[in-house]
Amino acid sequence: MSPLPNNKYVLWLPSWYPNREDAFTGDFIERHALAASLYTPIEVLVLAGTQEKEAIELVQVNENLRVHYCYIPHRPGGVLPLFVKKWMAYRKLIAQLFRERGVPALVHVHVATWAGAYALWLKQKHRLPFLLTEHWSGFMKTVPHTVYRFPGLLKALLRRIITRSSMVQPVSAFLGREIEAFARVPNMQIVRNVVDTKLFYYEPQLEGSFTFVHVSGFGHPKNPQGLLRGFSGFLENGGDAWLELIGPAKQELLDWVQAYIPEAHRARIRWMGELPYPEVAARVRQAHASVLFSHYETLSCVILEALCCGKPVLATRVGGIPEIVDAENGILVEDDDVAGLAAGFKEMQEQYHRFNPAMISVNATGAYAYEVIGRQISSLYDEIE
């Protein structure tokens, strides 16, 4: 099924996308591409920095999805020279693609900063409409990297990208409201993140000690110190469970744990490190519940993945999380409320019987699977003129 005319395709311009230099950046955009390509032919143009020589690579992912990578060497000189280099690389890739496949039906930008600037140029030069899927937390006023701290010209450019788009697709209603507070949005449709349900699926709970699983990069937004203090408080008050941590923890965090978390509580923490994606899914399937103590989230891929596995979620009431976590599939606590988190650990374990893991999985899979989100994206292309 494809809503496009014969031999037409959609050109994707992502600001972030996994590549050989960084396998994780924008992996949620890659999953959107895999989902949408079930129904629509897609060509993805990816610009990535490299310490090596400039190179262009083409990867045929499936019958409907090709990814064109252009690796640009890192050089000192500031933002403007880099932007010019990217601009020239985009023009070269686009010219080559247009000669080979013709002009696309439309352009799909993922994260306005900075790929949206090239979409503006394509709209002016080729009259190509573009839509924008947005994930970025920078539209929030309270985050350190907020767009409101951008120089005036860059803010004006970003506003123009949004207002000139044919449709904005935030991953949550929360993010949509933040974008609307920054710029006039002509048309908005919520498109959630997508889950690979061939990896994240329900399987009956095995016998064993109650285990919470946390997956992240352990940066400041995920509040790992608060998470660990909350788990320690839970154990201090008689809790009996394990906490499994998956991701690349820095030595600074490990040193903090040694200094501030009692030895008996450290013994209940399993540091799994960075794991291949299929192994992450296996660990989530084997846990009892997922936990996330973030300061802010536009949505949260790891929560969606846990829900597809049938795992109830203990998380903070921030950003888009309350849109996907309710009394039927989880417990919400306030941001940075360590005592509240400790109580949440206790409630999750003691009240675990009230959750229906199989139904949690059915509901989540029916909302976030590739087929569901891919079909939604493809149908929205029909609405773009």
Supply the key terms.
single chain, 385 residues, alpha/beta, Rossmann fold, 2 domains, 7-stranded mixed sheet, 6-stranded parallel sheet, 13 helices, 40% helix, globular
CATH class of the largest domain: Alpha Beta
SSE run: EHEEEHEHEHEHEHEHHEHEHEEHHH
Q: Can you count the beta strands? A: 13
How would you name the CATH homologous superfamily of the largest domain? Glycogen Phosphorylase B
CATH architecture of the largest domain: 3-Layer(aba) Sandwich
Provide the helix percentage. Answer: 25-40%
Strand arrangement, largest sheet?
3-4-2-1-5-6-7
Mind telling me the C-alpha Rg?
A: 22 Å
Kindly estimate the percentage of residues that lie in beta strands according to DSSP.
Answer: 15-25%
Distance between the termini: 19 Å
Low-confidence runs: none
Q: Sketch the major β-sheet.
A: 7 strands, mixed
Shape: globular
Structural class: alpha/beta
The whole-number mean of residue pLDDT values reads 95
Query: How is the CATH topology of the largest domain named?
Result: Rossmann fold
Number of helices: 13
- Summed up, the domain count is 2
Characterization of this structure:
The protein has helices spanning 27-36, 79-101, 112-126, 152-164, 173-182, 224-236, 251-260, 263-266, 277-286, 301-308, 338-350, 357-368, 370-381; strands at 10-14, 42-50, 55-62, 65-73, 106-110, 130-134, 167-170, 211-215, 242-246, 269-273, 289-292, 313-316, 330-333. Helix 3 links the parallel strand 5 (106-110) and strand 6 (130-134). It is globular. It is α/β, with parallel strands linked by helices and 385 residues long. It folds into 2 domains: 10-194 and 370-381, Rossmann fold (3-Layer(aba) Sandwich), CATH 3.40.50; 211-367, Glycogen Phosphorylase B (Rossmann fold, 3-Layer(aba) Sandwich), CATH 3.40.50.2000.
